[in-house]
Amino acid sequence: MTGRTPPNGAREWRNFYGRTHGKTLRASQKTYLEEDLDRLSLPGVQHEANPSRVPLDLATVFGRETPVWLEVGFGGGEHMVHMAARYPEISLIGCEPFVNGIAMLLGKIRAENVGNLRLHPGDVRDLFDVLPERSLAKVFLNYPDPWPKARHHRRRFVTQDYLQPLARATQPGAEFRVATDIPDYVRQALEEVPQAGFDLVAQGSEPWEDWLSTRYEQKALREGRAPHYLTFCRI
Known about the structure:
CATH superfamily: Vaccinia Virus protein VP39
CATH architecture: 3-Layer(aba) Sandwich
Shape: globular
Number of domains: 1
Order of helices and strands: HHEHEHEHEHEHEHE
Largest sheet: 7 strands, mixed
Strand order of the largest sheet: 3-2-1-4-5-7-6
Number of strands: 7
Oligomer: single chain
Strand content: 15-25%
C-alpha cells in the first residue's frame, strides 16, 4: 500500500508491525518524555492534527532555512545526536515509533545540548505524507529491522511502499545511506532502491568518514555479523 491520503481527506488505514514499547522506563526517561517530547515533535504530522495533510513548513519548524536530513528509525539516537552536533549548520529529523528509543534520544539531546533536531514518534509513512517534495538533502537508514522471514520481506523499508514516498521527498542529488549486517537486506536494497530513482554510488565494508558505530552495530560485531554500507544518490 502507498498510504497516500484518499480524495475525501480520510487517511488510508495502515498496518504497523514494529514494536512501540519495551522495558519499563526509568524515572528520568519518563521525565524526558513528559517535558521534552511535545516541544521537539514535529507539528502537524499526526492526522488528527492535520486532516488535510498540509505540507510542513520546515523553515518555520526549525526557525531557519537550512538543508534538512532525515534518520529513519534512530534506535537509541546516538548516530542522530552525533550528526546534529557535528553539522550544526543543518537541520535533522528523526523518526522512531519505539518509545524506549525516543526516551534514550531525549536524554542524549539534553546531555549534548543540541538544538537542530526534531522528531516524529511514529510511523515514517505519516511523516512522508506531510514532507514537502524535494525537501530532504540526506537520509540515513541504519540497521533497520531485518524482518528475516521471507514472508515478512514486504515489511522492510527497502520496498516501494516506503521508497516511492522517500523519493518524492528527496532532492535531486540527495544522498541515501543504508547500513545493515544482513546480507539479504543488502540484496533487496540493491534490487529495490534503484527502482525508486536512486543510483548506487558506493558499497562495501568500510563505513563513511563521519560514521558513528551504533549499539546495534556493536551487537552485530559481537555476534560475528559483518556490517555493510550502501550509498545511493537521488537521480
